[in-house]
């Protein structure tokens, strides 16, 4: 055999070895990716504990506060992984935002909402779920809040792993209730407040779904089904964007800036009306310019809804950061206050460093683990385009305002996901209606078999049932887990 043959064979063997090494490297990176995310998350939790140790000082309860801060950081990570998907999912599913863009916008606006407008006083604890004085001693109260914080974080983590968007506020409520029952019996729970929260399980998604379906019907009837779609869009899109601006202005005035200034409902609605009228006037020439040269088809309409959809996602994130983060870190704030002063029966004020843990934890959780739930909400329940996603975002703002006016407790998670369901079920109904109409005009049209009709459903029933089941069992599951954890902590602490 010649030297050239030997060299060729040697090179061929080397190529095979390099290909094996390359495949091994890819496989290793795929296996290692989840561990990298978990490692970063664990590092953040440890840093949160160190920050708490540095800021709280060398008191008798420093170790307790450090543990609570680590549990709070863990909870914040889970909020970012689960709850934020409801705001960003529709925009990503409609291809108005990339996944990276959505994560960047959500991280900025969630943190801004938490740090600028968050941290309002949490009356007693978790909105009056339990009577703190029923706990008896400071130690029992602290153990109960520790159990509530850890149980709610574990439940949201499990829901994220399963792929179910759940209310983190409801998880905290369940955790506080379960620990309260384990510590002081069923009499410690405010069952009137709990009945209102249970009612919100039904009210929130129903209201969100109906409002979103109503707006989608309006867009289809007034724009999509018109002969001249572009002319119809020039007339109605500025008005729809004005309604969105007015709704968000009222929403943020009512819910997002209550730490800076207190605004009643009538004043918030007046602010919204003024902002809505101004935006409507500004958008008329903008939409006219955007629509120049567009073809008279549905695909062209998506361009006109892209920017309003991105803005709505950012504003929803700001409002979510302002409201829900405070609820999630409420038990941590209660532990810090009780440990520092020994007082656990008065209103709980949230220290700024606790809000920082919440804000940064949400950003890390969203970046590391958020894409799974964003995809679920944005594309796996039903297919969204910019018009449908716009209806979801608009529904989220309007439903909160209506619920505040009626005095109804609602969940932002349930509203947003309920709106996605509402859009999907409306599309199913509208498709059936148009199909029946087509059969009347074309009698010989083939009738679909029942199996094919089920296959063509526009809302995935498996996801629908999983999410509904997760909603129903969130409070009782978090409560049972919290009760068990409280008894375990109490036994260990002796």
From TrEMBL:
Record GO biological process: phosphate ion transmembrane transport
Pfam family, any one: PHO4
Membrane topology: Multi-pass membrane protein
InterPro entries according to UniProt: Phos_transporter (IPR001204)
Keywords in alphabetical order: Membrane, Phosphate transport, Transmembrane, Transmembrane helix, Transport
Transmembrane spans: 35-56, 63-81, 140-160, 172-192, 198-219, 239-257, 263-282, 303-322, 350-369, 389-406, 412-429, 464-493
Cellular component, GO annotation: membrane
Protein family (similarity comment): Belongs to the inorganic phosphate transporter (PiT) (TC 2.A.20) family.
PANTHER family the record matches: PHOSPHATE TRANSPORTER
Protein name: Phosphate transporter
Lineage, opening ranks: Bacteria, Pseudomonadati, Pseudomonadota, Alphaproteobacteria, Rhodobacterales
